[in-house]
Amino acid sequence: MKIFVLEDDEAIGIGLSYTLQSEKFEVSLAKTVKSAYEIIEKDRFDLYILDLTLPDGNGYDVCKKIRAKSDCPIIFLTAFDDEINVVTGFELGADDYISKPFRVRELIARINACLKRYSKNSEKDTVQIGELTVIPAEAKVLVRGQEVILTAMEYRLLLSFISNRGIILTRQRLLEDIWDVEGDFVNDNTLTVYIKRLRDKIEKDTENPEYIKTVRGMGYILK
Questions:
Q1: How far is Cα of residue 152 from the mean position of the Cα atoms in its chain?
Q2: Is residue 205 exposed (0-12), middle (13-18) or buried (19+ Cβ within 10 Å)?
Q3: pLDDT (mean) for 76-101
Q4: Residue 142's closest CA among 153, 151, 129, 154?
């Protein structure tokens, strides 16, 4: 599998490339936004790892460029771990966010988790629930025939509900499904916001949801 790495710190870039290659990944490394654009325009990758702060721009712009042409997993690898930067990354379509300094084995585990989830979702057929249609192979969601645009986190949350349709999911279970590896910035308030945003986009009446229902004192369920 092919992984693209955007990292301006030469020591980190070389070390990360060596580690990934030892795990049998094919790696392409860029140090600037300009060189990143040149590479991703010419080639496609199975996963992208992006530093946030670059000498000629930032990883957010590169993330948007990638998302315009691909739904493959994107992981931010950066020293900026405050909640605003983390949420911004996910809103732009990132799948995971790892803070520096990082543990190599944890990074590999998260890479494999992202690739596994992407592969699993791509293999699924179209899911039809009432007037809600989900096409995992295209990462596309339609409501009453009209496409709705979900962020990476909203989409991942919806897939978690679909994979467990008819089962009550606790808040803790949802957090685990969404984030894979626990992060300090994850809390009930964050989950509440994403569920609200998802309902706003797929429900006719958010006060009386048709799809994602609250089970008081227990969690949520997709009927």
A1: 5
A2: exposed
A3: 80
A4: 129
